[in-house]
Design a protein that fits this description.
Layout: E1 2-5, H1 11-22, E2 26-31, H2 35-44, E3 48-52, H3 58-72, E4 77-80, H4 95-123, E5 126-131, H5 134-138, H6 144-164, E6 169-174
Parallel strand pairs: 1-2, 1-4, 2-3, 4-5, 5-6
C-alpha cells in the first residue's frame, strides 16, 4: 500500500511511519520544518520517502499529491497527523495564534483530504485516518484553540465517513491522550 502521513518527521507521525514501513508499505512521510529528522527517518527506513510541504498551503498540498500520484499511481491510505499545540490562556490567544493553530491542525486535514479523495473515489477504495485528541472530545484548559481544532477534526471525520462510505472509503479518527513526544 501507498500511505501518505502528514507531519511524519517527529512524534506520533514518525512512529506510525516506522511501524507501517516495517510491515512493507510504501510510506510518504510529509514534513515541513523538521528537515533533519525527516532525512534521518528516510535514511534509516528503505520504505520511507520524505516530502517537504506545508500542508496548510493548498498549492504545496496539490503539488505533493500530484507528485505521489505521478510516481505511484495511487494513495491507498491518508493519515492526517500534522499538528501543533500551545498552552495559553484563552484571553491571551492572538489572531496569529488562532490562524496558526486552525490552519495547521484543522485546515491541513481538510485540504489534504480534499486533494486525495478524488483519487480514492476513482479507485473506489481508500482509508483516511485523522489523528485527533482526547481534548477534541472533552476540551482542555489553556488549550482551547487546540481543542476547537481537534473537535473540528472529529466532526469532519464523522461527516466524511458517511459521505465516502458508499465509495468504499473508510474514514476514522484516533484520539490519543497526552503523549510524551
Amino acid at each position: 500500500m501507498v500511505i501518505l502521513i502528514t507531519g511524519a518527521s517527529r512524534g506520533i507521525g514518525r512512529e506510525i511511519a516506522i511501524t507501517l514501513s516495517k510491515e512493507g508499505h510504501k510510506i510518504i512521510a510529509n514534513y515541513n520544518k523538521s528537515e533533519e529528522q525527516a532525512k534521518e527517518l528516510e535514511k534509516q527506513n528503505t520504505n520511507i520517502e520524505i516530502f517537504k510541504a506545508d500542508v496548510s498551503k493548498r498549492n504545496e498540498v496539490q503539488n505533493m499529491v500530484q507528485e505521489i500520484i505521478k510516481k505511484y499511481g495511487k494513495i491507498d491510505v491518508l493519515i492526517n497527523n500534522a499538528g501543533i499545540s500551545e498552552n495559553k490562556l484563552f484571553t491571551n490567544v492572538t489572531d496569529e495564534d488562532w490562524n496558526r493553530m486552525i490552519n495547521t491542525n484543522l485546515y491541513s486535514a481538510f485540504c489534504v483530504s480534499q486533494e486525495v479523495i478524488p483519487y480514492m473515489i476513482h479507485e473506489k477504495n481508500g482509508c483516511i485516518i485523522n489523528i485527533s485528541s482526547v481534548w477534541g472530545i472533552v476540551g482542555s484548559s489553556c488549550e482551547t484553540i487546540y481543542s476547537i481544532a481537534k473537535a473540528g477534526i472529529d466532526g469532519m471525520t464523522k461527516s466524511l465517513a458517511k459521505e465516502l462510505g458508499p465509495s468504499n472509503i473508510r474514514v476514522n479518527s484516533i484520539a490519543p491522550g497526552i503523549i510524551d513526544t
